[in-house]
């Protein structure tokens, strides 16, 4: 399609819109509906972000309260001795001392090879 044809089509459409009050009204209503939808989406996003921000702020305030009250350190220190007792007991076992005689490591003799008997050529 040439540029002239496109320009003529757009001019005809603009003339039809300008001449028809019903078309102008539909275009205006569609624009207002789009603006309302965008505004509603922005409001929903703002509400969601506000809720998320409130949750984050509450979690930070709770964590700060626990640190300031010393409750955080108590929970960590009460959990550590139990873990240390269970894992530390395994480390505290006395090490085995090497005895004077050691068993040899697995050094096996290779299996004896059997050679197949070759048939001798018959003397003629």
Give an overview of the whole structure.
By secondary structure, this protein is an all-alpha fold. The chain has helices at residues 3-19, 21-69, 71-91. It starts with a helix and ends in a 33-residue tail after the last helix. α1 crosses α2 (21-69).
Using the CA coordinates, give the radius of gyration. 45 Å
What is the arithmetic mean of pLDDT? Answer: 76
Briefly note the structural class of the backbone: mainly alpha
User: Topology as H/E string?
Assistant: HHH
Strand coverage percent? under 5%
Low-confidence stretches: none
**Major sheet, described briefly?**
none
The tally of beta strands, per DSSP, is: 0
Number of helices: 3
Shape: flat
Terminal CA distance reads 105 Å
Helix coverage percent of residues? over 70%
Descriptive terms for the model:
124 residues; mainly alpha; 3 helices
List the helices and strands and how they pair.
Blueprint: H1 3-19, H2 21-69, H3 71-91
Helix pairs in contact: 1-2
In short:
The chain has 124 residues and is an all-alpha fold. It has 3 helices and no strands. The mean pLDDT is 76.
